[in-house]
Write a structure and sequence with these properties.
Blueprint: H1 23-27, H2 29-45, E1 49-51, E2 61-66, E3 78-90, E4 95-102, E5 105-115, E6 117-123, E7 129-135, H3 136-149, H4 154-157, H5 167-182
Antiparallel strand pairs: 1-2, 2-3, 3-6, 4-5, 6-7
Length: 187
């Protein structure tokens, strides 16, 4: 396994929809190595997820994991999950406002409205069909990664540009209010 370079905002690959992976391609050594490298890269960078676009690959695959993440101490645990060819279905109209950051947009955060609960239909890394139902901040994490695969950045979903903040200023001025607001969704 090796760490991959994380592509940052401005690179056109982040604005390009990733392409579905065939079962044969998913089983290939190249894609399995990509998945392993994405996991290592996400963990090393302290991310909660990483989409293939973020490492300059236009394959429709993302990895997600939250396990005592110091960058996101308020996020509930998410076991390592590989999602291939995912689609998202909202389970209700309920939405929540999440202050999000992104490894591809260093040192910037902003408020994004997300569906509070979603069903994610996807393949796992072995090609098995999966249905994952998630709620709250975890639902936000899955939506964020699927957005990447669609060529959408969290920046595009911020409705009020006054919510943009650096990580340091978020910690200093906004974190407490955010944690209070999302407490019902953090479990």
């Amino acid at each position: 396994m090796s760490r991959l370079a994380i592509t940052t905002v401005g690179d056109p690959v982040l604005r390009t929809r990733a392409e579905e992976i065939s079962p044969e391609e998913l089983r290939s050594a190249a894609v399995q190595t990509l998945i392993d490298d994405m996991i290592e890269t996400m963990r090393a960078a302290g991310g909660a997820g990483l989409a293939a676009n973020q490492v300059s690959s236009l394959r429709r695959v993302a990895v997600i994991e939250v396990d005592h993440n110091p960058r996101y101490p308020y996020k509930p645990p998410i076991p390592l999950t590989v999602i291939v060819n995912p689609t998202i279905e909202p389970l209700s109209d309920e939405r929540l406002l999440i202050n999000e950051g992104c490894l591809s947009v260093p040192d910037l955060r902003g408020d994004v409205e997300r569906f509070a609960s979603v069903r994610v239909l996807h393949l796992d890394r072995e090609g098995k069909s999966c249905e994952t139902v998630v709620r709250g901040l975890t639902a936000g994490t899955f939506q964020h990664e699927v957005d990447h695969l669609d060529g959408v950045l969290f920046l595009d979903r911020v409705r009020d540009p006054r919510t943009f903040t650096t990580w340091d200023q978020f910690e200093r001025h906004h974190k407490d209010a955010f944690l209070q607001r999302i407490a019902p969704y953090a479990a």
